[in-house]
Amino acid sequence: MKRFAIPILRFGFILGAGIVLLICATVLPELAEFYAEIAPEWAYLRYPLLLAIYSTLIPFMAAVFFAMKLTFIIQRSDEFSNNAVFCLKAIRVCAFVLVAMYFTGTAIMARLVDISPPIGLLVLMIILASIMVGSFAGILEELLRKVIGYKEEIELTV
């Protein structure tokens, strides 16, 4: 099971990150230009919005990196180590940084312009997904800390 699951997980991480990078490199600039032509009164927000969206790539790619690192740790059969706890903590922090960035960006945008419902729904979905990922990583982190504590306790008694 582990022999096939780890490469599939890695492929999924690489594919997801690649698709996000491809969308950011090709689709987003064209969308920004299109909306700047349609609504010239909002054209001044074109580059600040692109910069804000591109800045959210940093914690996203960091989370993907730590998830990949976690798969290497699992493949080495070193799951119950502090390195795995560190990776889970980093994923949790990245997820909540994404939540803060999108929440702040949406609040600023709501002050400047009227946010359309589809865009608001998309941002809400991103925020909720990040909260779920961060919460799950935090739960796994605490469980792993307890398991490591039990493991050390058993090693000391033997």
Automatic annotation (TrEMBL):
Family annotation (InterPro entries): DUF2975 (IPR021354)
Transmembrane annotation, as ranges: 7-29, 49-72, 93-113, 119-140
A Pfam family annotated for this UniProt entry: DUF2975
Domain of life: Bacteria
Keyword vocabulary terms for this entry: Membrane, Transmembrane, Transmembrane helix
Full protein name: DUF2975 domain-containing protein
Annotated organism of origin: Youngiibacter fragilis 232.1
